[in-house]
Amino acid sequence: MTPGKIRTAIVAERVAWVRKMLEAIRNLPLGSYEQFREDPRTPAAAESHLRRALEALLDLGRHILAKGFALAPAEYKEVADELGKIGVLSEEDRALLRQMAGYRNRMVHFYHEVSQEELYYICSRQLSDVEHVCEAMLQWLNEHPEKMDAEI
């Protein structure tokens, strides 16, 4: 595999998806845990939107690694580690993305262990972490236009 150019269209699509999913979560009743669990569709929607936001964020990282550096990590946690190794993410952001990858895996493979209470906590207090890591990736891309097929 030879490094090439990171596709601006894919970056824009993944970032838009992350933002769309986070906005959908913010439009849910998050005023209190009682409001959140009142309608059983709300936690289900929150879980779906959060999982898809995390997957889009991790897919963005995977695209950066594959196209820009010819790296193909097999697992989402490895995406975070590789982004840290090559300097796309700081150590703090790498650790944060690794934690998000673990939570995404838990949502998919250990879904029966994800409680409504923890889901509420994440959706009401930690969405800014997803935005922060997304912005860190975008900042790195903006600082390295030579890696892009066009400007973002």
Strands, helices and their partners?
Blueprint: H1 8-26, H2 33-38, H3 41-69, H4 76-85, H5 91-109, H6 116-125, H7 127-143
Describe this structure as you would to a colleague.
The protein is mainly alpha-helical and 152 residues long. It has a single domain, classed as Four Helix Bundle (Hemerythrin (Met), subunit A) (Up-down Bundle), CATH 1.20.120. Helix content is 72%, strand content 0%. It contains seven helices and no strands. α1 packs antiparallel against α7 and α3 packs across α6 (116-125). The longest helix has 29 residues, at 41-69. The protein starts with 7 loop residues before the first helix and ends in a 9-residue tail after the last helix.
Instruction: Tell me the helix content.
Output: over 70%
Strand content: under 5%
* Fourth-tier CATH superfamily name: bsu32300-like
- The CATH class turns out to be Mainly Alpha
Largest sheet: none
Shape type: elongated
What's the total number of strands?
A: 0
H-E order: HHHHHHH
Mean pLDDT: 95
**CATH level-two architecture:** Up-down Bundle
Question: Would you kindly provide a brief summary of this structure?
Answer:
The chain has 152 residues and is an all-alpha fold.
Descriptive key words:
152 residues, 7 helices, Four Helix Bundle (Hemerythrin (Met), subunit A), single chain
